[in-house]
Amino acid sequence: MDVLIRAAHERDMWFCAEAAAEELCTAAEFERAHAVLEPFTAAGWQPARWAMADVLLAWGRTGQALDLVDLDGTGRATERECEKFAALLGKAGRVDEAIEVLVRHLGAYRIRACLIEITKGQGRDERVLELLAPLADGARRAQGGEIFGHFVGSELYQCAEVLERAGRVDDAIGLLHDATAERYWSHNLLAAYAALLVRHQRIDALRDFCSGEHPDVGVPSFACALEQAGRDEEAEGVLREFVAAQQYPNHYRWALIDLLNRQGRLDDAIEEARPTFEEHDGSLLESILHLLQEAGRADDAVALLDERSPEYIEEQYDWFPSQRMWLLGEAGRYEEGLAYAATVPIDEYGLRGQKAWLLAGAGRLDEALDLLRPHTRDFFDLAYLLIENGRAGEAITAMPPLAELRAVRPY
Questions:
Q1: pLDDT, tens digit, for every residue of 125-158?
Q2: How far apart are CA 230 and CA 22, in angstroms?
Q3: Do 75 and 64 touch, CB atoms closer than 8 A?
Q4: What is the dihedral of CA 103, 105, 106, 112, to 10 degrees?
Q5: Between the CA of residue 131 and those of 8, 146, 361, what are the distances in Å?
Q6: N or C terminus of the chain: which is more exposed, having fewer CB within 10 Å?
Q7: Do 263 and 256 touch, CB atoms closer than 8 A?
Q8: pTM of the prediction?
Q9: What residue ranges do the domains of the chain occupy?
């Protein structure tokens, strides 16, 4: 905690100040949290004002919190400002006021999501449905071949979310069923319908969904519902049937791999994925490597990599060395990883940080730090290594000026 506060004050690191304030509030040290944020608030930093409002609210100073970020009442507040202010009102228990703040911007997905979140469990479901129903009707009327984007039809699945939590599950399913029967909708709406059916074990409806125009969404969901019902063999059979029948089966293949892995059949999952390993598009090799690493089988992951053809390794000239160095480190084979790193142009491939982690794992921390120190771009790896080894104070001291950091990492 003290290190975070020091970084905030000595280096003007806002994210450190924000994190420190959150931790202090969790510990009910509100006065200290206020002091950490005060310099940033005084400088006019808008995120600091909102963070300070959260501190004041947690401190029991509701009036001060709301006054600090109060909207001007002229209607000029942005959607984002309305969203944040409504969330604050919701935390203060002033839910009806929060709803009124949001009403003018209900055309925006994020605003509707905020409305749904702040009214959860507050006995306002009918009021929310009253506001969302006309928007859902409008979305249905507006559908057509030119509709694209993640949030197309979001009014419908957000309305269904509120119907579901109000206990009107059949109404929610009916709403989305009618919508997905139409031709042009976003993947998100289709996925929301499938997930709703899975949550309520509507297996027959999912079977029908599979036979429609969207089996890529319906089949994995159908298999998931079967698995949840304890019908694992049926779930596997459904997925294998679609893998065998499709020209481009990898979507169903991954669902099958996921199922096999959950059943503790990782070796079967690997064999299912193996035909894709050297595909130019659609390779499942990286996903399998991660599954092996998560299962504590990094040695097996290295072995899979080492089975790759020379042509594949040449094509994956930067990805392959990165994966191999990482997995050798995960397997505790640090010296072998370092020997391999010596054969790779680490600067050209951006692998200096990975080599440093291998050095640290091999007990050669000073060499790792010396490798990173001259390079501003690698400061974050340097800082992580110092912090991991109990030397957080050094990380702050070694921090380059903010202008220099932003020059190499503007994001």
A1: 999 999 999 999 888 877 654 444 455 689 999 9
A2: 42
A3: no
A4: -100
A5: 43, 26, 57
A6: C
A7: no
A8: 0.85
A9: 163-230
